[in-house]
Structures are given as C-alpha cells and as structure tokens.
Design a protein that fits this description.
Layout (H helix, E strand, L loop, with lengths): L20 E6 L1 H12 L3 E4 L8 H13 L9 E3 L2 E3 L12 H19 L4 E6 L3 E5 L4 E3 L10 E5 L2 H18 L5 E6 L9 H19 L5 E4 L1 H9 L14 H15 L5 H14 L9 H17 L9 H13 L2
Parallel strand pairs: 1-2, 1-5, 5-9, 9-10
Antiparallel strand pairs: 3-4, 6-7, 6-8
Helix pairs in contact: 2-3, 2-4, 4-5, 8-9, 9-10
C-alpha cells in the first residue's frame, strides 16, 4: 500500500563542497537551510538585511548591496525607543541610531564582497503581500510593530513579481563570478494572518512568477521546498505547535533532499565528522572538574584539529577558543 505521494527531485547537481561559497536570502525558511549549512561548517552568508518576505524587499536589499551604497543617517527612523530601517528586519534595531547604522553598513560591504565569489545563491520568497507606509508612500520590508493604520496592504500582480525577480537575477549575474547559480524556492510557511485563501493566492502568484523567470535564465533553478511540505509530507505531524512552521523532522527531510541533490557525496564522511564534533560541543556535563571531562574536551580538540584543514578557514575558530578556555577553567 502507498500512503503518501513522494516527490521526485533529480536536478542537475551543483557539486557543492567545502570550497563552495553559498549566499542565502529571503524568508525565515531560508534561515532554516542556512543554519543547516552553517552547522556542517559550509562557508555561508545569510540574510545581510535580516529576514525578508516579499520580492520587492529582496530586490531593494540586493540593489543596495550590488551598488555598495551605504545608508545615511536620514534613512534611520525612530519609533518609541528604537532606531530602525524600513528596509531591514527588526533584528537590526537598537537604542542608538549610530549602532543601527554601523551594523547595517558593515553588512552591506561584507555581502558585496561575498557575492563576488559566491557559487550558489538561494532566494526564498514568502509572500506576495506588501505594506506601503502612507506617510512616505514607501513599500517597507518590515512594519516594526508600528500600528497597521499607518500602512496600506496590497497583493503584488504577477507581472510586478516577474519584473522584480528578473532584476534580482540580472544584478546577481552581473556581480557574481562565472558559473554562479541562483536557486529559487518558495517558503512552505503559510501566512495565516493574511487568511488561508489570501495566502494561497499569494503563494500561487509567487510560484507562477518564479517558474517563468527560472525558465528564462540558464543559471536559475527551482528547489521544491514548498512541494515537499504541501504534497510529499502533507501532514500536521510535520509542523510545529503553531501548525504553520515546519518542524525539525520536516526541515531535516528537506535538507536531506537538498544534500543528495546538490552536495557532492565525496564530503559526506567529512560532514559526519563535523556533526560528531558539533554534537559533542553541545554536551553539558554535571561536573566540569573531573578527569573524564578533561579527556572529553581534549578528544574534541583532537577531532577539530583532524578535520579543520579540510574545512573553510577558521571554521571552528570560536569553538576552539572556547574549548581551550574550558580546559583551563577545569583545572
């Protein structure tokens, strides 16, 4: 008996390995994939503007990165006690305008440098709904918990999404190195606050626009994260308690599909060694002054020293410093 419809995904492999540079941008689902890549110590840069949900926000962010255009103090706003940018996620907000501006501009420079040597760019779209600030007639990336009476909400037309995605592809292709690939994907996270019918309209427009653009460019592909959740797994047991976000089982399933398709099998054994080290680093002992614990820390150091030359430079730098500190503190 067959109890589910399994999605077959057999694209041309990218052959990613530990020499590859990977850039991810978009909705919170892009964060899930980037965290998996970071866990295995791939060289990945994620969301230099924070989580972005709609294509116009991603296009605007990439335009600033592409042109390497820093933000000015006049582009930083204040609401209650926080300074923020309408183009950025609230994670960039702070209690001083200077701190917010410095963090924003540092990320722009870093992202510009990284994109020039990137092998794969993953763009994840979340919604086709946008909010426009009435006061400035400005489409924002994040409303920063400001009352919704100050915004108008609208659903982007398919041609607007296509235009935005084409601009994204053109900018990335121009700034990127030869052979760079762009992988579009649609977040399976449902925006239930918009309403289920409205969410489906939004996702449908994004899907149609993405496939149209992907079919128009040789360096673009589509990864079916949305279909893995909606058609393959298709069960609420694969969601978190909010019944909206995929849980760890679902994310792991999608990650394994991505790994099989796009990461060269030559490094699978090395990835398992990285996983072993990371799991060991998560161990929290009851007593840190035992000989057994000292030996345990030393074994992790040896494992890191064994695999680090095969990984991106400084992959375990912070962990190594922390291990040395723990070893000294345990005496």
């Amino acid at each position: 008996m067959i109890f589910r419809t399994e999605l077959e995904y057999n694209p041309q492999s990218y052959g990613l390995d530990y020499t590859s540079n990977i850039f991810t941008m978009g909705s919170c689902f892009a964060t899930e994939i980037s965290e998996k890549l970071a866990f295995y110590k791939f060289n990945v840069k994620h969301n230099p503007f924070g989580v972005l949900f709609h294509p116009l926000a991603i296009e605007n962010a990439l335009m600033r990165i592409y042109s390497n255009e820093e933000y000015l103090a006049s582009e930083i706003y204040k609401y209650e006690d926080l300074y923020f940018s309408w183009d950025h996620h609230s994670s960039f907000s702070s209690h001083t305008a200077e701190k917010t501006l410095n963090l924003i501009n540092k990320n722009i420079q870093d992202a510009n440098n990284f994109l020039q040597n990137t092998d794969l760019i993953i763009i994840t779209l979340g919604t086709a709904f946008v909010y426009r600030l009435k006061q400035y007639d400005l489409v924002v990336a994040n409303c920063h918990k400001i009352p919704n009476t100050q915004f108008t909400k609208s659903l982007l037309a398919e041609h607007q999404i296509k235009t935005s995605l084409k601009n994204i592809v053109e900018m990335l292709t121009d700034i990127g190195k030869p052979g760079m690939k762009i992988l579009f994907t649609l977040s399976p996270v449902r925006h239930t606050k918009d309403g289920l019918i409205e969410n489906n309209k939004s996702k449908a427009r994004l899907l149609c626009a993405m496939h149209s653009v992907v079919d128009s460019y040789e360096n673009c592909d589509y990864f079916p994260s949305y279909e893995f959740i909606m058609d393959d797994l298709r069960d609420y047991r694969f969601y978190k308690d909010d019944l909206v976000h995929p849980n760890e089982f679902a994310i792991q399933y999608i990650w394994e599909s991505f790994q099989r398709a796009h990461i060269t099998s030559d490094i699978y054994s090395l990835m398992q060694k990285v996983k072993k080290v990371n799991l060991a680093l998560q161990h929290r002992p009851h007593n840190t002054f035992t000989i057994a614990y000292k030996k345990f820390l030393y074994s992790i150091v040896k494992d890191i020293q064994d695999i680090e030359p095969k990984l991106p430079k400084g992959a375990f730098k912070e962990e190594f410093v922390e291990l040395r500190k723990k070893m000294n503190d345990s005496y």
